[in-house]
Specification:
It contains seven helices and nine strands; from the N terminus they run βαααβββββααβββαα.
Length: about 230
């Protein structure tokens, strides 16, 4: 499998994740010190605490996606490792953040790094249970939300991009969700969009989820459009 990435975006976002969190903690510490040393300085204390909270949450969000051991771009590439060179993983260069270009079309992936227990009931409602969930989200971990809706939105964005860049080609586009946290119990058979735990997605791509191959000329056009050749 070949990988195309926007390395500059990843570097900048990783930097924000690391240093915004540190700066936020320092601002919170400064607010705490002011509250003890100069309790009458209410405005500076509130400003420092507010700034610290904003920076900490922002930094935690970016760190979770770009700089943690489960950084989305790295975790997804590991889950797909072993696919041959007819597959191209394109990250942060297309309207959808993670796109797998396949011999038969494209899959827009949504990556989730939550741990604990994730379930999707028959009505398509998602539930996430995890120890310390409130504090993790307070520190910047994104909520689970409705990942199938996120995935469908990313697929539609990709479809519109392909329609503009390859107006004469019919490229199948679909969505999928990949959970990458090793400390996760996943029950998502009822998900409206295919959802998998880590490397199980690769078996799906090679088996029941394998798309009918595109004509060679169309596949080459697709690969050229995304920068894969």
């Amino acid at each position: 499998m070949r990988i195309i990435r926007n390395d500059r975006r990843i570097r900048v976002s990783s930097f924000i994740g690391r240093y915004a969190t540190l700066t936020g903690l320092l601002a919170l510490l400064a607010g705490l010190i002011i509250s003890f040393v100069k309790p009458d300085w209410l405005t500076p204390m509130l400003m420092s605490v507010t700034l610290g909270l904003i920076l900490s949450i922002t930094g935690g969000f970016f760190a979770d996606r770009y700089a943690s051991p489960l950084a989305h771009h790295e975790a997804l590439s590991k889950a797909l490792k072993g696919l041959d060179d007819h597959y191209v993983l394109v990250q942060y260069t297309l309207p959808a953040p993670h796109v797998l270009v396949e011999p038969g079309g494209c899959t827009a992936f949504v990556v989730k790094a939550q741990g604990g227990q994730v379930t999707c009931d028959k009505d398509g409602r998602w539930k996430h249970r995890q120890r310390g969930k409130f504090f993790r989200q307070f520190a910047g971990q994104e909520g689970l939300g409705f990942p199938h809706l996120d995935a469908e939105v990313q697929a539609r964005k990709l479809e519109r991009w392909l329609e503009r860049h390859l107006p004469d080609a019919e490229i199948p586009v679909r969505a999928a969700i990949v959970f990458v946290n090793p400390n996760l119990t996943l029950e998502a058979d009822n998900s409206p969009v295919p959802a998998f735990y880590d490397k199980k997605v690769k078996a799906w791509l090679r088996g029941p989820g394998k798309l009918k191959p595109l004509p060679d000329a169309v596949y080459r056009q697709l690969a050229e459009a995304v920068g894969g050749t």
